[in-house]
DNA sequence: CGGAATCCTCTTCGATACTG
DNA sequence: CAGTATCGAAGAGGATTCCG
């Protein structure tokens, strides 16, 4: 039962011992947008197979990357969530997301699409220099999924669900959203063409578009 | 011959399509410290096997991550080197190196050890904000491995071997070095306790400790 | 030396079916 | 729902061989 290891006294190799198997990093990506049930993970990872998912979650739990918790009543469902150690992988995942965008140019027919992935892409491309003193939140409604971005003290959080009192609401379909995140469409153009609709403060909109890469 | 893909329209998934197979990211790590011959790679990746290495290099070349070049005479040897796209993976690798440090606490008997990997670890923990106008070099002697850091124009280079005229020489054992790198020990404390010894300019020492994460 | 090709064994993956 | 069991297919690992 001894797990396969690269057996190298090196941080990269150890990281790959933990994360290097097929699907593992994608599971972490899924959990980055909040705790998920087994079934949610299955749906977010088309093709994984239940046995693999079980095995990966068990491994990640063993490494202290993932934790299994039971939500308080009345939900009472069991979910998987990232530990502190797991959340500290966020910069790595975002780096991979940004790097992978270079291969995302051509959308392929066989590709699955999910709003949550767009949020990861979104976060990975948010321009930090635009954050500054900003302290506000934007709600994104991409097709029928809702997320929000919360900016405060130079930190950016992207979470599932709607914002309490958003300074801006952004509506879009998944296609447009991904295209903007991938840098293939200018956010301002998408707004101008109506592919992206916004409600809220005009200045908030401009700051938001700037963070999305608007020139 | 259709390559296996996650088929997700997501940057992370595409990145894993390219980099996610066994050994691939470690090959990139190896090439991060300079071009390497096939044999050098084999030695830096104990256990990989010639067929796998060939296949991975071919894939990476196909993706434009790696390039095959023939060195000018008299060397005239064929080497593999990272393309611009490949070098842009450095932040990701460094992120993984930093994360993997947390699993490196216990050195295992069966682990391979190579100076180049320690260099990667060092580079991954150097704090960039401390660089500023600094223009100097530090030599590190970790157990019997020697490498040096050269800082100039806000850039940091880590190289094998000793420095020509180092402003500072830092001595330490591997355990201490890793503990400092992983943030488990304050560099200044390690100096105070004698676990890290330094020779050279006092101000250089302070700058160096700052880059190692001293508060 | 720098690979490519072949063969064989073992492990892992992927898909489906089945159970608490 | 949340997994376990199972089984054929694909990939990994190691050795060896061949070639330029």
Explain this structure to me?
The structure is a homodimer of 215-residue chains. Chain A is of the alpha+beta class. The first copy, chain A, folds into two domains: 11-88, Orthogonal Bundle (Arc Repressor Mutant, subunit A); 115-211, SCP2 sterol-binding domain (Nonspecific Lipid-transfer Protein, Chain A). Chain A is built from ten helices and seven strands. The first copy, chain A, has helices at 11-19, 24-31, 38-44, 50-63, 84-87, 90-100, 115-125, 174-181, 187-193, 202-211, and strands at 66-70, 78-82, 136-142, 145-152, 155-160, 168-172, 196-200. In chain A, the strands form two sheets. Chain A has a five-stranded mixed β-sheet. In chain A, strands 1-2 form a two-stranded antiparallel ribbon. Chain A is globular, with a radius of gyration of 18 Å. In chain A, 39% of the residues are buried. Chains A and B meet through helix 1, helix 2, helix 6 and helix 7 of A and helix 1, helix 2, helix 6 and helix 7 of B.
Summarize the structure.
The structure is a homodimer of 215-residue chains. Chain A is an alpha+beta fold and 215 residues long.
């Amino acid at each position: 039962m001894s797990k396969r290891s690269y057996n190298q006294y090196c941080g990269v190799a150890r990281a790959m011992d933990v994360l290097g198997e097929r699907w593992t990093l994608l599971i972490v990506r899924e959990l980055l947008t909040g705790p998920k049930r087994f079934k949610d993970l299955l749906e977010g990872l088309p093709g994984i197979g239940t046995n693999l998912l079980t095995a990966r979650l068990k491994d990640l739990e063993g490494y202290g990357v993932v934790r299994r918790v039971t939500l308080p009543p009345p939900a009472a469902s069991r979910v998987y969530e990232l530990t502190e150690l797991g959340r500290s992988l966020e910069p790595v995942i975002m780096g991979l997301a940004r790097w992978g965008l270079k291969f995302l140019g051509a959308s392929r027919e066989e590709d699955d699409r999910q709003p949550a992935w767009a949020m990861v892409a979104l976060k990975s491309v948010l321009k930090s220099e635009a954050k500054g003193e900003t302290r506000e939140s934007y709600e994104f409604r991409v097709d029928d999924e809702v997320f929000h971005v919360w900016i405060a003290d130079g930190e950016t959080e992207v979470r599932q669900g709607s914002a309490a009192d958003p300074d801006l609401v952004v509506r879009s379909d998944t296609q447009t959203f991904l295209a903007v995140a991938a840098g293939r469409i200018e956010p301002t153009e998408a707004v101008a063409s109506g592919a992206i609709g916004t409600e809220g403060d005009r200045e908030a909109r401009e700051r938001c578009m700037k963070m999305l890469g608007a020139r």
